[in-house]
Amino acid sequence: MGSIKTVLRKKPNSDGHYPIAIRITQNRKSSYLQIGQYIDLKYWDNANHQVKKSHPNSKQLNNLILKKRVEANDKLLELQSSEKRVSSQAVKQHIRKEYKSTSFFKLAATYIENLEQAGKYNRTSAEKPRIKHFREFLKGQDIDFRDISEMTLRRFQAWLKEHRKVSDRTIVNHLIVIRTIYNLAIRENLVEQKHYPFGKGKIVIKFPESVKIGLDMEEIKTLETLELESQPQRYALNVWLLTFYFAGMRVSDALRLKWADFQNGRLFYQMGKNNKAGSLKVPEKALRILDQYKADKFEDEPIFPELRGIDFDDKKRVQRVINNAVKKFNKHLKKVAEIAEIDKPLTMHISRHTFGNISGESISLQMLQKLYRHSSITTTINYQANFMHKDVDDALESVIS
What we know:
The chain folds into 3 domains: 2-100, no CATH class; 104-195, Orthogonal Bundle (DNA polymerase, domain 1), CATH 1.10.150; 217-359, Intergrase catalytic core (hpI Integrase, Chain A). Helices cover 51% and strands 11% of the residues. It contains 15 helices and 8 strands. It has helices at 58-82, 88-100, 104-117, 121-137, 150-164, 168-187, 217-224, 231-245, 251-256, 284-291, 315-340, 350-359, 365-372, 377-384, 390-400, and strands spanning 2-8, 18-26, 29-39, 44-45, 50-51, 262-263, 266-270, 277-281. α1 (58-82) crosses α2 and α3 (104-117) packs across α6.
C-alpha cells in the first residue's frame, strides 16, 4: 500500500524558509514533490501536516496543499490499478510527466495560481500583465522553455522599449518574472540547466539606480497649513500626512488601522508587507487628524471608510479596494501639489521617501531600521543612502571653496 503525506523539507532556501512537499511512499520507499511554496519553520504544524493558522496566508496555503495531495493520491490510485508494481518514484515521474509537455505559459498559469492560493494578490496583479506582454511580443504564440534564448529575451527588451514605451526598471521587472518561472521549470525537471538564458555571459538582470526624492520640512509645513475647498483633496492629504507622521507608514497599513489599535497614546500594528509588529507613540499632529474621524469611531472597524464592512480574510478583495483607493488618493494629491506650488511628485509612497529625506543623518540607522521595520540593517543602509548627502556635499564644497 502507498501513502501520501504533506511534509516540510529540512533544506531552507536563501531566505531561511523551508519548502512544503508532498511525500509519496510506496513499498517503504519515499519520493518528494515540492509544491513551490516556502514558509518559516515556526508556521508548520507537524502533527497535522499543514500550515498553522497563525500564518497570514494559512487558509490559501492549506487549500493548495490539499489540492496537490489529492492530485498525487489520484495518480497513485490510477497507477496501482493499472500496474502490478509501482514505485514512489514512478508516481512522482508520472505527475511531472503531465507537466513535461507544458509550455512556458502553462507553467506561468500554474505560477500565478500558486501566488493567488498563497494570498499574494499584489504580486499577482503586477505579474499577470508582464506575462501577458511576453505573449503579445510572441504574437500570441506558445513557446517552449528551450526556445527562450538570450536572443529572444534581448528582442523582448527592445520590443518593450519601442512598443510599450516603458522604463528600464519596468523592463527588468518583466525579465524577473520570466526568470522566476524558468527557475521553477528547472526545479520541476521540465528543462535542463544548460538551456538557462540568464547569468554571466547571458542575460544579466541588474536593477537600474533610481532617484528617491522626498519633500523637505518647508514643503511639509506648507501642506500642513494648506487651505483646501475640495473634501476629497483634504481627505487624501490627511491620509498622506498621517502616514508621514507614522514614519512613512505604507498606505495599505494606514487603511487597515482600527481605533482598537490605539492604546494609551500609542499605535500598535503589524506591518502587512513583512508581518513585523511594533508600536509607535502617537504624535500630537497625528491626533489632530484622527480627531476629525471620531464621529465614525467603532473599535472593531477601520478608521477610514474604504475597508469598512469588508472581510479582511478576503485578501484579494482587500487588495483590490486598497489599489483603487491609492489611485484615487494620488489623483487628488497631484491637484494638492499644484495648489501648494510643490513641483515634486506628490504620491502616497512619497511620504516614506519624505520621512527618509527629513530624517537624513539626524537619526541612527539602527533606530531608522526599527521605525521602517526593515528585517535587515542592510536594507535600511541602502534605502537611507538616497537621503544622506552631507559627506558628499562637504567634500564637494571643500574642493570648490
